[in-house]
Amino acid sequence: MKELSLHSEEARANCSLQVDESANNLRISQEVNGDSLGDEFRGYVFKIMGGCDKQGFLMKKGVLTQGRTPCFRGYGRRNGERRRKSVRGCIVSPDLSVLNLVVVKKGDSDLPGLTHVEKPRMRGPKRASKIRKLFNFTKEDDVRKYVNTYRRTFTNQKGKVTSKAPKIQRLVTPLTLQRKRARIAEKKKRVAKAKSEAAEYQKLLASRLKEQRERRSESLAKRRSRLSGASKPSITV
């Protein structure tokens, strides 16, 4: 006997039940007929999503074995660093304690705690482009009022009733456009300032080099005059 944890994407609920070994030798992502699990699951189709044993070792997709095997795992570590961690294969074995299933097709009757009630999706997309894609909007439409569908109202510690909604990311507003124009203007200002400072520096550098060459030529002329005066022979009468 093995405990199966069923997950329904429509109901967003879980339930556990005891079944026989009809799911053995199946792999992850394979479908299971609900008729083999019991009469209450007649017509249901489940999909295997994973599982674990009594020691908590999870099944890993792509590992074609029934037992445990050490695999290189790099999750949660430094870039390029991996370590061997024991995982279970993707094939269902008798020593599993929990097997996770997803309801793919609903059967004849509802399952209490799983499909008898529909729970609405409480969280929607936060990115503005994904909200437009969800409601089929254009760039000219305002998407801020459609976030109020999952706005929640609560009472704070002071007893005041307030509401809160998720912040829309990448939302183009007049304020964001103004900030963008300010950033571009500031960047142009910095570029112009850098160019003017570079031109002034080159001008100063050229003047300093010219002065250095003039001083060098003057010192060479004085040295030549001294050497020429010392080399002339003195005439005595």
Note down, in words, how this protein is organized.
The protein is built from two helices and nine strands, in the order E-E-E-E-E-E-E-H-E-E-H. By secondary structure, it is an alpha+beta fold. It has three domains: 2-105, no CATH class; 128-164, no CATH class; 173-223. Strand 1 (2-7) and strand 2 (14-19) form a beta hairpin. Mean pLDDT is 84; it is low at 8-16. Belongs to the eukaryotic ribosomal protein eS6 family. Residues 210-221 have a biased composition (Basic and acidic residues).
Which key phrases capture this entry?
single chain; about 240 residues; alpha+beta; 3 domains; five-stranded mixed β-sheet; two-stranded antiparallel sheet; 2 helices; about 25% strand; ribonucleoprotein; coiled coil; structural constituent of ribosome; 40S ribosomal protein S6
